[in-house]
Amino acid sequence: MLYFENDGKLPETIDLYLPGNREQAEDFNSVIHNYFMPLLSKIDENCVYVNNLCVDINNRRCGIAKQLICNLTQLFPDKKIVLDCLEDNTKAMQFYKKLNFVITEHFRGYSGNQKEKVDCVRFKR
């Protein structure tokens, strides 16, 4: 699980990442500047953003993802949790709704190594 706070450190993180990953630098740079930077500008200091929450297919339906979210709420008890999900990922959408997340936005975003934007939703709890 990776989370971002709007603490202004993302440019430093990018600078540290890019030198060792030249072959991915162009795509990574595009996603950072076209997706994460605008995203962080929308998230205030009262939020924690979860970039990606996934569990290995062989270990799903064991409560791992639920426990990760519970741990996150314990680590940041005074902050809201914000995360994005692919709109066509119905299982994840149901999971987040079951954990009392609500959809706050529909938008075109990125997924994995895709170069084209895809339909996404933003959840908040």
Description:
The protein has 125 residues and is α+β, with helices and mostly antiparallel strands. The chain has a single domain, classed as Aminopeptidase. Helix content is 40%, strand content 25%. The chain has helices at residues 10-17, 22-42, 64-75, 90-98; strands spanning 2-4, 47-52, 80-86, 102-109, 118-124. It has a five-stranded mixed sheet, covered by helices on one side. It is globular and about 35 Å long. The chain starts with a strand and ends with a strand. The model has no long low-confidence stretch (mean pLDDT 77).
- Provide the CATH topology: Aminopeptidase
| Secondary-structure element order, N to C | EHHEHEHEE
The structural class is alpha+beta
**Would you state the CATH class?**
Alpha Beta
- Approximate shape: globular
Distance between the termini: 17 Å
Tell me the number of helical segments per DSSP (H or I, 4 or more residues long).
Answer: 4
Strand fraction equals 15-25%
- As for the number of domains, it is 1
Give unreliable regions as ranges. none
> CATH architecture, please?
3-Layer(aba) Sandwich
State the major sheet.
5 strands, mixed
CATH superfamily: Gcn5-related N-acetyltransferase (GNAT)
| Order of strands across the main sheet | 1-2-3-5-4
